[in-house]
Amino acid sequence: MTSTGFDVTVDRQMPPGRWLQVAPAGAQTVFTLSGPGMGGFTPGSAQGIMLVTTDVDADCAKLAAAGVAVDGPDDLPWGRMAAFKDPDGNGLMLLTEATE
Asked: E strand or H helix at 72, and its extent?
C-alpha cells in the first residue's frame, strides 16, 4: 500500500496499540508511527528529520496547499531547504541537494 509516496512496510495491532512503519519506495530507512505506550516515544520530541527530494519547491507548494506552515525553501550552500512540523510537533526538513 502506498500513500503520499510512502509504502507501508509493517502494520500490526500489538498490545497496547498499533505499530505502523512506512518508508519511501526502495529506502533502507523506515519511520515508525506508534501510539501511546508504544516504546516510550513522546509526540513532538523528534527534531531534524531530513527528507531529500528532487523538487523542494513543488513539495513545499503541496504541503502549503494542504494547510501546513512551511518555513522556506531557502538557498543554502548545501542545497535548497525548507522546514515544517507534523501534526504532533515533530520537526522535519526537506532538502534538494546542491548540484556542482
From this structure: strand 70-76
